[in-house]
Amino acid sequence: MSTDNSAQDLTVRDGASLPDRFENPGLPPHQQRMADVDPAASKRAERQVVALFAISVIGTIGFLVAYFALRPGESVESMRLSNVALGLSLFLAMFGIGAAAVHWAKTIMSDHEQQEARHPQRSDAEVRAGAVETLRIGAQESGVGRRGVLKGAVVSAVALVPLTFAVPLIGQVGGDWNVSKFRHTLWERGRRLVRDPSGEPIKASEVTIGSVYHVIPDGLREADHWIEEKAKAVVLMVRLDPRDLKESEERAGWSYDGIVAYSKICTHVGCPVALYEQQTHHLLCPCHQSTFDMADGARVVFGPASRPLPQLPITVDDEGYLVAQSDFTEPIGPSYWERLK
């Protein structure tokens, strides 16, 4: 219901009187910036924007140099150097453009508030011509036309920065797309489980209930492309109370006295899973929180992963050291186009 009021119409809602409409308060007074009133400040701001675009150009060039000149080799140090150089130069390329655009908008471009009445989606010819004229005026006020150095910096940075994405993509053309490599790892019958990274073999009698081992295949360092092989073969091994272990019939012989071993490569996007919760036997992936039950075939109990972690069948040799019975019986890691599940 409504009631009369000498100042304005009021609407009674939930016992309170509210106005039917609010008056437009209008725009606050425009505040002049330093660059608007001081030519020296305007020129200084222009130089700062040019410098930021130059940083982007330098970053892009540095990325290309790092991509071609710092190819990672077999050593961890070379991979670290390559990744740091690529990451830092890519950051400079992206940051330079972003910071320059923000600083340009805040210090050089026109900041006068504009109001425009709503109208049908298709404007008439006169309005469309007015919009074109407004854009022309905006381009003039932004200072692009009369600032040649700034214009060149913008064009250079925007033209070069796509190379940081295009060059790596083009570099993969004709590369090795043999995904069958993911079906096999260095694990084989009789290969010992050793600690990562020391390479110390593991006796089953020394593994206590609740302990966790990061495991790699024995002799990994002698393999060709051992870094790539390690990325596929890394394993997390845990000893559980045999009474807590739930094993399907086909996997009844894959563990040894409560000791189970599973691939560390998450089946979601391939992050290393390594956060083990002893009380619940849950293994957590730190990237997207996929959680696997180590006592129940590493099945997924939470998160985006759609499949359990592949299990490595293990036993002991004549000396009591833990060894693999075979390779993984399924491909490790996330799905790919030749994998059905």
Automatic annotation (TrEMBL):
Region (Disordered): 1-40
Entry keyword set: 2Fe-2S, Cell membrane, Disulfide bond, Electron transport, Iron, Iron-sulfur, Membrane, Metal-binding, Oxidoreductase, Respiratory chain, Transmembrane, Transmembrane helix, Transport
One Pfam family from the record: Rieske
PROSITE patterns, sorted: RIESKE
Segment forming the signal sequence: none
Superkingdom of origin organism: Bacteria
Entry keyword annotation includes Nuclease: no
Compartments where found: Cell membrane
Entry keyword Iron: yes
Gene Ontology MF terms in the entry: 2 iron, 2 sulfur cluster binding; metal ion binding; monooxygenase activity; oxidoreductase activity, acting on paired donors, with incorporation or reduction of molecular oxygen
UniProt cofactor(s): [2Fe-2S] cluster
All residue ranges annotated as the Rieske domain in the record: 232-323
Residues in coiled coil: none
Topology of this chain in the membrane: Multi-pass membrane protein
Annotated Gene Ontology cellular component terms: plasma membrane
Membrane-spanning ranges: 49-70, 82-105
Purpose: Iron-sulfur subunit of the cytochrome bc1 complex, an essential component of the respiratory electron transport chain required for ATP synthesis. The bc1 complex catalyzes the oxidation of menaquinol and the reduction of cytochrome c in the respiratory chain. The bc1 complex operates through a Q-cycle mechanism that couples electron transfer to generation of the proton gradient that drives ATP synthesis.
Protein family: Belongs to the Rieske iron-sulfur protein family.
Record protein name field: Cytochrome bc1 complex Rieske iron-sulfur subunit
Lineage: Bacteria, Bacillati, Actinomycetota, Actinomycetes, Micrococcales
